[in-house]
Specification:
Radius of gyration: 23 Å
CATH topology of the domain at 1-125: Rossmann fold
CATH class of the domain at 1-125: Alpha Beta
Distance between the termini: 14 Å
Shape: globular
Order of helices and strands: HEHEHHEHEHEEHHHHHEEHHHHH
Largest sheet: 4 strands, parallel
Structural class: alpha/beta
Helix content: 55-70%
Number of strands: 8
Number of helices: 16
CATH architecture of the domain at 1-125: 3-Layer(aba) Sandwich
Strand order of the largest sheet: 1-4-3-2
Length: about 325
Amino acid sequence: MLKELDIKNAIKILPYKYYKLILIMGLKDRQISGILKKISLEFGYDYINLNLKLSEKLIRLPFDERCFYVEEYVNEIIESYHGSLLILDNIEILFEKHLKINPLLLLKNLSRYRRMLAFHIQKGASIPMGAADFYAGLKQRFPERDGMYFLPDQVIIYDKKRMEMELNDQISFLILDEKTAIQWLRRELEKKPQTYQEIQPKFLQELHQMKHEKLPELLDLLEENFLQDEKGRWYVPDPSKQSDLEKLRKKTLLKEFEEYKNSTGRLKVFRTEAIRAGFKKCWKDKDYATIVKIGERLPESILQEDSSILMYYDNAITRMGEDHV
């Protein structure tokens, strides 16, 4: 249980940090909000209910336009307070998907110039199923188009727009890294099963590999993510077999991650998917030190642009700090 003294001790070391941010994450807990309000009154810190303040500004805008103004409004709210430390309570609104922002990156950038303490309520709910079962459920319940799932009334509109724009001919799907490579292959093989010889020329045509990305060979991508029929054609597996492929792929990625752990120096070329898989396992094992150690060896651009990797890295730093307070 987080105590008032823990928070006060963390505040003391903020002036010595580059990012002057304390991020508290936990289940819904009125006691923590009460502690924050008490600290605010005791030391004269500004207390902000961010959900309330930001909602008051966003509610005036159309739903689909709010993402364009959210960062500007958060800045306005922060700038309207002039205390030595800001306490941001109830920041869950920043994690709303329709706002399309990276909450951790936003808070970090703001905290370079202002001391801030933020409390985020985690939902804390786990999904008792694997990805294969999840996607099987999606296919059973919702129409699928181009790797996306729609409500019945939405798919009619999408099909109409798709025909008008002749989507298949006008949009090119660029392959930048392992994740987009798998997406491209899935999309291509869902049209029809194809041999390696049929896939390779099209794959190379769309390949625009990022400099840091250690992209597996095309054949390895096929073997790790798809199945082959008796005619040598690769196809998208049904959900019942997908789970076995996921286990094999996870094992391969973690083996790659172990190589990064045992190496030294900056990581210049690597499999981003291996970093994600490794960080996920380390987090589950509470091995925060490894996450931080590997994160410090990654290019700064990866930490800034990949929200998943950044989430594990930032939270691992926070957890390590808590262990030493």
